[in-house]
Every structure is written in C-alpha cells, then in structure tokens.
Design brief:
53% of the residues lie in helices and 11% in strands. By secondary structure, the protein is of the alpha+beta class. It has 2 domains: 187 residues, no CATH class; 198 residues, no CATH class. A hairpin with a 5-residue loop joins β10 and β11.
Length: 431
C-alpha cells in the first residue's frame, strides 16, 4: 500500500483535480476525434490511466468509490478501455499516515487504546487499524475526513467527468444509477447505521453458527469510527494456500449461497457488496465464515423484494413464461418496444445454470465468459426498460457471490439450498 501524507478533502481541491483530468483526457480525445471511439479512448483515457488512478487515490472518498461501483455495471455497456480505467480503481490501495488519521479520534480514545499506527487495511472511504484494549484485540475502522460532505458533489463530478470523455453511450441513461450510488454512499458513511446493521445481522444469523459476525465495542464507536471484535482468519485471496479439502470447499460454498438466499427470501435485507475484503475464512477451531462489513446493507421495499424473489424462483424452475412476465412487470424490459425474448431467455439460462444441475461445479464455471458473449446481441436485440435501481445492487450481489464461489471451487446442489431456505422461512412464519 502507498502512504499518503494527506487527502484532498476540500471541495475546491477535489474539483480542481477532477477538472484537470477531464481537460487533459478530453483534449486528447479531441485531437483523436477522427478515429473510432475505441481508438479515441485508447489514445486518450488509456494513455492517462495511471494518472487518473493516481489523482483519485489522493482524493480517496466517494468519487473513487462511485467509480468502483459504476465499474461493476460497466461491463455490459462501457467500451473496454473505459471499463479498464474504472476497474483499476478497485486495486488502488493507499493509506493516510497515522499523524493525520488519528485526528479523527477523540484524544481520550487514543490514550486508552493501544493502536498500531500502520493500517491493517485501507479502502476508498476509510482505513482499518488493529487496536488492543483490556487484553482484547479489535479492528478500528476510521472514516477519512470530509468524505461524507463530498458525496453529492463527487457523484456529480463523476458524471461530468465521464460525459466529458464521452465514455457513456448516449442511449444509456444512468440517472437512476447515479441516484442509487449516491444514496448507497450516504448510507456507507453513516457508521451508526452500519453498527445497527451489524448487530441486526448477528441476531438474524443466530440459527446459523457457521456465520460469525464481530461484536461492536460501543465505547469506542461513533458516526465516523467503528471498533469491533477482531476476527482471526484468512483473506479469500489466500484460498489456494489453505489446503482446504473438497468437502470444506463444498461446505463453505453451500453456506455462502445459503446466506444469499436468506438475505433475499427471509431477512429482506441484503449486504450488497460481495467482494473479497468483506469476508474472512475462519478455519480454527472450526470452519466458519467471518462477515466483517455491513456498510452497504440495503432493505428494498417489500413489493420489490417479493417480485425479485418470484423472478429467481421462476428462473430456478426454468419457467420461461413466469420469468419473462415478472421481468416485464419489473420493467427490466421495455413495454413499448419489441425485444427478442427467446434470446433473453437463453441469456437468463446462462445465469440460471447453477440451478439446473444435481451438483454444480463452480470451479469450472464459465458463466461470466458466456454472459459477455451475449452482450453484443443483447444490446442489439433487447429494449431495456426502466428497472428499479434496487435491482442493480442485488444483481451486483449475485454476481459477487458467483465470483467467490468460483474462487472457492465449490460443488453442491444449488436448488437444494434454495428449498432448505424456503422451508426455513415457512417454519419461522408458523412459529
């Protein structure tokens, strides 16, 4: 991780930095205006890619996080070169020096806690340090100064930045996505809400001891800082070095899929950010999932979550009419323009493939590759409607779960897990 002596947190310094990037890359685009869009981007945006990422790394905060979020939706409509720039933000890790970040902590906390000045982890909105108090080990998550106040302007700046570079095709309307990103960021920087979500999930998962949610230390937590029990485990990046047996991989994968179904079908609350940094593999004294971040938790409206559940059930049962009908109802597809519904059903069956096998082999899954092959045909033959922005974040969650299961190389019956969750739901309802 790269060390930062300070972060651009002021409105003016952030806007100037963004403007400089837009002007520089925009000028390069203009010089190459006679080339096709792919060549333009290659000779402008890609040329300044490292500079773009460097500037955003110094700013940290919501501009960088919003760019990361948009990259998750960008694969289907962004030119490859533009997608690469946004995607590269996910791997940009830098941290603020202790002399600066400690200014966020109350003085009496610093006196009571024994805090390691070198961060354990760093992200776009804050960083995590190891702390000891009363012989207990904690992770203390500290938000960067000014990121909460900058959200609205940063999301607007991202929109202007991408529009200036002509990175978004004119037929794509991202208005609702930008609104949803803004709302999710506002939620993510509200650490009081994250504490509530963490404790809520701990209570919801009491029947499932394979999931470990860290306890909050309220004495050292506020709206900008969370101090929670340190979970001793392994990063998902270390899977290959753990020598897990196939049975262990299968167990971890099955329970991870169970968690997804529980969130959608039972809890009606979804932790939408399924990436490696939000999970820990605990192997001692017994195998468990450590769930360590609930900042991106979302409780969609009941009518939406009910429709989404039915859409998944129709897909799992290969019910084409039911699935397409629910898609239309949820406005995934336009009601005013024609679409090749047979093609879209083919595409849906790629996503639904894990439901159709007795034992799906995630390690050999090529779902992502198949989906990308369909994208050009989908763009030409499918008229997208106006789906709820809630669906985008749950779709993202499912994509993240699929990716992690592939990394785990699990093998299990997905439909069996879904049926077990639905039975659990019924049993809870009848109590």
């Amino acid at each position: 991780m790269k060390k930062l002596n300070k972060i651009k947190s002021g409105f003016l310094s952030r806007q100037v930095g963004i403007a400089k990037l837009a002007i520089k890359t925009g000028t390069a685009l203009y010089k190459n205006k006679d080339q096709d869009i792919k060549s333009q981007l290659k000779n402008s945006v890609e040329k300044y890619a490292s500079e773009i990422v460097e500037e955003l790394g110094v700013m940290k905060g919501s501009f960088m996080k919003a760019g990361q979020m948009l990259s998750l939706f960008g694969g289907s409509f962004l030119p490859e070169e533009a997608h690469k720039v946004l995607k590269s933000l996910e791997n940009k890790t830098s941290f603020l020096v202790w002399d600066e970040i400690q200014k966020q902590l109350p003085k009496e906390w610093i006196e009571k806690l024994d805090i390691n000045p070198t961060p354990f982890a760093a992200a776009s909105l804050g960083q995590v340090h190891i702390a000891f108090y009363d012989n207990e080990k904690y992770a203390i998550k500290i938000q960067y100064k000014g990121v909460a106040k900058a959200i609205k302007n940063d999301v607007r700046a991202l929109k202007i930045f991408l529009n200036t570079l002509n990175l978004i095709p004119k037929e794509i309307d991202l208005t609702e996505i930008y609104k949803e990103i803004e709302q999710m960021l506002i939620r993510e920087v509200n650490y009081t809400e994250e504490v509530n979500s963490t404790e809520n999930f701990a209570a919801l998962l009491l029947d499932f001891p394979i999931f470990k949610v860290p306890k909050i230390n309220h004495d050292f937590s506020n709206d900008k800082i969370i101090t929670l029990e340190f979970l001793d485990g392994h990063s998902l990046n270390d899977i290959e070095s753990l020598s897990l047996t196939q049975d262990q991989r299968n167990t971890l994968g099955r329970e991870f899929m169970r968690l997804l179904f529980l969130e959608i079908f039972v809890f009606e609350e979804v932790q939408t950010d399924a990436h490696f940094g939000n999970y820990i593999l605990i192997t001692e004294p017994e195998l468990k999932w450590g769930l360590i971040d609930f900042g991106a938790t979302k409780a969609p409206p009941k009518d939406f979550i009910s429709s989404y559940r039915m859409m998944l059930i129709h897909l799992s049962k290969k019910d084409k009419d039911g699935f397409i009908g629910k898609l239309m109802e949820m406005e995934y597809l336009s009601k005013n323009k024609e679409s090749d519904l047979d093609l879209f059903w083919e595409y849906a069956n790629v996503v639904g493939a894990p439901f159709y096998e007795e034992e799906y082999d995630w390690g050999n899954s090529d779902i992502a590759d198949q989906m990308y092959k369909y994208i050009p045909r989908i763009m030409k033959s499918i008229s997208i409607g106006n789906p709820s922005s809630h669906s985008l974040f749950i779709d993202k969650k499912i994509g993240g779960v699929y990716f992690i299961l592939r990394k785990l190389k699990s093998r299990f019956n997905v439909t069996e897990v879904l049926d077990e969750v639905l039975s659990y739901k019924e049993s809870k309802k009848n109590k």
